[in-house]
Backbone:
């Protein structure tokens, strides 16, 4: 089972647009791009635990280990949770656009058992709303 999210730039689990989507290993090192760094800073700047906040964008880590796209797609089930209006353009591109390596989230459409959990805000730009279950 894979539990993941989609970033504002369409990344999944820090598989950024520039990361090799064909990496055969299940865990890979990645360089986090500036769009994702800004998202991490914005997401955590109001965290209720002050120790979890970044004082400034420069404090956000730029390197990480993550599950590769191959690792995510190898899961029997994928659960993807995407809250917030700031992610609506990425959700629209993933759902209504082409499947492409430049938008890692679109690769989720290749998996037969992916469940998306969207709120009204993240689904607000969809041309073809998903089936509600």
Residues:
């Amino acid at each position: 089972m894979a539990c993941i999210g989609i970033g504002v730039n369409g990344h999944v689990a820090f598989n950024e647009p520039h990361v090799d989507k064909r990496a055969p290993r299940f865990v890979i090192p990645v360089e986090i791009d500036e769009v994702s760094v800004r998202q991490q800073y914005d997401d955590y700047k109001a965290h209720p635990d002050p120790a979890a906040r970044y004082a400034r964008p420069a404090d956000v880590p730029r390197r990480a280990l993550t599950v590769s796209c191959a690792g995510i797609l190898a899961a029997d089930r994928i659960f993807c949770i995407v809250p917030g209006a700031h992610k609506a353009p990425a959700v629209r591109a993933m759902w209504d656009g082409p499947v492409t390596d430049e938008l890692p989230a679109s690769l989720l459409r290749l998996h037969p058992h992916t469940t998306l959990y969207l709120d009204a805000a993240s689904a607000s730009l969809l041309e073809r709303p998903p089936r509600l279950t």
Remarks:
- The longest strand covers residues 27-31.
- The beta strands are 2-4, 27-31, 63-67, 78-82, 114-118.
- The chain is about 20% helix and 15% strand.
- The mean pLDDT is 92.
